[in-house]
Task: structure prediction
Amino acid sequence: MAVFGVDYSWGRPGVAALKRAGVKFACRYLSHDTSGKNLTRAEAEELSDAGIWVVVVWQNSKTGPLGGRAAGEADARDAARQAESCGMPDGRPIYFAADWDASASQQAAINAYLDGAASVLGRRRVGLYAGYGPMKRAFDAGKTTYGWQTYAWSGGRWDSRAQLQQYLNEQTINGAAVDYDRAMADDYGQWRVGVSPEGDDMPDYVSVGTTTEQRLAPGVWTDVNWETEYSDQHHQHWNQGGSSVLTGSARYSLTVGATVTGVPAGTLVQARVVEVNMDDTGNFEVGPIQDFVSVGDSTNLVYGLAADTVRANHRVRFQLVQHGTADAAVTSGSAKVFFWR
Result:
């Protein structure tokens, strides 16, 4: 489920109004402006104290990225200095705005600008604000790690790699002009003064289930699919009805309960987790295996993994194998995941 946020420049809605509106994060500006557009340390502290995450974007002019690599280097140095003075923790990203309908012929300059920013910040800290075309081209070229896509100039298309989406402009909260945004990933560049998301000790939670019979062929490790979502605020069960319950990187604990039918009494049934490479699902790492013995027509089993870590670009799945001689079935089950980033 997407997380609701806003971005704004000179007007300030105030934290009380933001919280009443259900805002979870605020995207704020860094620039050379001296008339009140920029995020300040006091504002960052006020947002942080209210539990609202902060995201920063550098925009000194709408077409700044056309300045190429040298401009990217200079802007990144200034942006990093301003962000640090506002209390941004080490390692958090900065978005750089390409705030116009950028053509394919302008992409080389944009990419060079992002290269310049990366030479200062490191590629993992570089984000791009743009419409669909330049966003897609920058991601395809490996020039940006974070994406904040606006619906403007996008023709209704969204790049699924963009962690943030700006989907509605010219709204008002408490008399201040704001744009509406949504976070589509757990890590979208957010921070609070002195605190990265991983500094928050409260775990996030996924709860999914199934009541649909699923075939278990003998001797074959089989993914269990989950068609029902009970809780998944951060969109970890990314393909509803599918098998993945968590996307890395994260620390996690997992508990699965399942009912298996059609396995003769005394027959071995095994359970495990696998961490599947998102780019090649045939490439996976195997977690602990737990053994169970069928008690007859219907066997209830509980698999528990107290603590583990899934790497970036991997997804966690739960698998079963039964060692009988004929097909059996999973008839119901539930999976619960606590995870920390």
